[in-house]
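User: Can you predict the 3D structure for this chain?
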Amino acid sequence: METERLRGEPVSERHHAVLCELLGDPRVGANLGGVADPGAVARQIANQAEHWETHGFGYWVWFDRETGEPVARGGLSNTHVGGRDEIEVGWSVWPSRWGQGYATELGAASLRCAFEELALDDVVSYTLHDNRASRRVMEKLGFDFERDVVHAGLPHVLYRRARAIG
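Assistant: Here is the predicted structure, written as structure tokens:
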């Protein structure tokens, strides 16, 4: 998967070190319900690799096409939120890259995959209630606020985006 500035690789075991750096960062953990230790990262990688194998889509680790440096983790995943099974568009960006449009860029690529390749009717995105940056990204990507939900025991906002018809 490629965008103007990014190259995405399906999450796999070879990404363990870079994902430990990202998901172990307290600034990232503040938006994900806590930091992940190396064992938790390994479990997430195994789950995401299984998701790719089962569903043919999932999360990518995104790298800067010019420098090769890691920028983000994100993509599509099955989730259960707000009492329903859904397909989520999600992202986590390295704090050094916050505010540079990478979440919007990888989110747009994920939406193209969801609607053009997978022909999904709609997708959701959700975040902690106070995560204003992710909420702005969702709105830039054309998601509409649907409702407040509790996910993983924490207050979240649920947004939805339908595939454009025609």
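Residues 12 and 45 are 6 Å apart (CA to CA). The first strand starts at residue 6 and ends at 10.
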